[in-house]
User: Fold this.
Amino acid sequence: MENKQIEGNVVLVIDDDDINLQVAKMILEKKLPCRVIIADNGIQGLEILRRQYVRVVLLDIMMPDFDGIEVLREIRADSKLKNIYVMMLTASTDKENIKQAIELNVRDYIRKPFLPAELIARVQKKLIMKADAEEISKILVIDDDENNLSSLKKILEDHFPHEVLTANSGINGMEILREKEVNLVIAATSMRFINGFRILDFMGKDSKLKKIPAILTAPEGSDDILRKIKLSDAANSITIPFNTDKIVSIVTETI
Assistant:
């Protein structure tokens, strides 16, 4: 049951030692149902953090050029990253480094070389604590274009901790809306039979569903479709071209 809670979570390991990176990745992915991403320097680690959602970071203190404390300062200074859970990896007994990490809100570190059982237990515990602390929102994506559906699901899961539900038709989308608690709907206006506008109409007739924000996506260049939204009185909806960067930006602001 505990492992089910953390299934699919992402752990980032930042360390300049390639052996440490590969060993940590192998140990964690073998024993926990999480995905482990590795970075061999602080700059690369920050780039990863800024483009996708990571639940826990394992950060080496002693790295050349841009060390763990500098990376940690960058994380805490970024409004989108500052609350991420960071666990320091250190072979050092340097009390000054540990003191600086504590001042930057790090309360946990693992001595290197780490014991596999300790690494697994500590990371598992933090992943479960984070899962219990967060209320996971659900995003429903409705599109009969399988390429759009799969690509948008992956992008949303990479950027957010939210659960992403998918429906490959308007009918399936309405069934999910009837059965599950959903926090955001993303529906294509170009679907056959029941398109995004009909989904909006369906939601608007239900007192509970009409409060859910919706993003309608239209093919690039479909100006006539984009103008149709003005005919709708759905206050919580917006219609945009199918652009993944724009969708991610709106989701960030919405839930």
Notes: The chain has a mean pLDDT of 86. The two ends are 27 Å apart (CA to CA).
